[in-house]
Amino acid sequence: MAKTKEKKPMITQDNFNQEYADPIEEQQIRHFVCIEMGRQIHRYIKAMHGSKQQMLRFEEHLKDLPMKEKEAAIARYIDLNRKVIKGLDMKIVLARAMANYSDTFEYLVTLVNDKRKMVKYLNLIREIYIQYHEVIERKGKFGILDHRGRTLVEPKYEFLRTCYVYVDDLLTMPLIAQLDGKLGLILPDGKDTIIAPFIYDSISLRDEPPYFEAKKGNKKILLNTDGEEQ
Hints:
39% of the residues lie in helices and 22% in strands. It has helices at 16-19, 23-47, 52-63, 67-80, 90-101, 105-112, 115-129; strands spanning 134-138, 141-145, 151-157, 159-161, 175-179, 182-186, 194-200, 202-205, 212-216, 219-223. The strands form 3 sheets. It has a 4-stranded antiparallel β-sheet, with no helix packed on it. The protein has a 3-stranded antiparallel β-sheet with strand order 1-2-3, with no helix packed on it. It has a 3-stranded antiparallel β-sheet with strand order 8-9-10, with no helix packed on it. A hairpin with a 7-residue loop joins strand 6 (182-186) and strand 7 (194-200).
């Protein structure tokens, strides 16, 4: 049964402060939150002993994206590297964004003390950046759903491994999957696109390009993210 869309209350003089949402304020706070989340990933790569070149590569891929694409790219990165936000207080992230938006200290204090706005923006931040996929099992076979419950990978595989790589180019990383006893690489794109055929006896993940090491009999093979043997 389809959900009925909840009607927003009509804005009146009496409820103006409670119901009105300033689109410019929201846009700017999202902009500054996005910067803070990018910095958090920068700090994470550094803490994981990534090189300066790797950090610059991440920032280079991020900097020219429109804000919504940037938010989506960061959310995908967090989904595959969930330790990025371990211990991160979103209230601090929001307070920093509000500080960047405010032109006076008094206005910053007003924003931070507005509980309605704080809750609204905290919920918005979580909705944008916390978009975790879920591995499901049906009749002994595995698949993946996105954060909205949409199928990314059909539940038909004997084994699935999501690739947790702390440095990448913001590209969608293939998954290691097993079908009929053999391993290959697929994309979580809702189409089960095969990147590397199911011909390998094992595939393991490396922490630098090329990201995959496969075995076929006694032969060791490196695979890149396009499934090409190196």
